[in-house]
Every structure is written in C-alpha cells, then in structure tokens.
Amino acid sequence: MDVMSQLIEAHEQLLALSEQKTEVIVRNNVEELNRIVGKESRLTAHIASLDQQRVSAVGQYLTAKGYRPHPYITVSDIVKLIVKMEEKQAIQEAQRKLLNTIERLKEVNGQNQQLIEQSLTYIEYSLDLIVGPPDDEATYQHPANQYAGTKRSGLFDTRA
Questions:
Q1: Could you list the residue ranges forming a coiled coil in this record (predicted)?
Q2: Is residue 142 part of a domain?
Q3: Radius of gyration, alpha carbons of the chain
Q4: pTM, 2 dp
Q5: How far apart are alpha carbons 36 and 44 in whole angstroms?
C-alpha cells in the first residue's frame, strides 16, 4: 500500500507539471518548457522505478498468501484475494484515485499536444507568408531543366 501511495503522489506531481506546461506553452516560454520537460523525464523514471517496486511487493504478497506471483496481475485481482474489508476498501480507493489522476493527466497532455500542434501550424503559416510556400526545391533536378528564377514568391528574396 505504501508503494501505491507513492505512485499516486508521483502521478499527482506529474499532473501538476503538465498543468504548468500548459501555461508555459501558451506564454511561448521555451526555456521554462525545457525545464519542465526535464523534470517530467526524471519523474517518469521515478514512476517506472515505483512500478517495479509495486510488482515486487505484489509478488511478495502473493507468495505469502500461497499463490504463484504473476507480473501482470491487476489491482482488481488482488482485491479478490484480500479478506479484510478495510484493506479491500483502502486498495480500491487508492486504485480509484490513481486512475482518476492518470485520466486527468491524459486530458491535460492531450490539450498540451493540441496547443503545440496549433503553435507549429501557426509558425509554418508565418514562414510561408514570409518566404513563400516550398515548391519541391529540395528534390533533384537536372541542371538543364532548371531555370534562373526562384520558385518561392515570399516577401524575401532567398537568393540574396
């Protein structure tokens, strides 16, 4: 149960970072965004470590109860094995809290992804206005088939 509490706390910290990231994306603060992403990476590694501890604790619990440990056993499966009602309720409450936090985390990350995609679309649009849309300039053309003019019709002359 201790590992489960740590997992919940770590996911809540990750959610808080994701919510901070939303504000940073809106403000277009790239340095702060990089700092938050670094924190998220460290926290994600910590969550992976906690999950390994959870698997180990579940294995020990199953062994103590006379069952063969299985790495993919779910919390719902564990609840079926618990006899004491208060322990059962505590684990179910922890499961509910963790699942709610993960669901909220998915929502915030989806929103952040949309904001980043909108930002990239705007940047691409702005570049196309300034330089003009790309017209397959990156593909090879035989020198005899090329002509002296540039294909881009933006505000800047790219041959300068």
A1: 84-118
A2: no
A3: 26
A4: 0.75
A5: 12
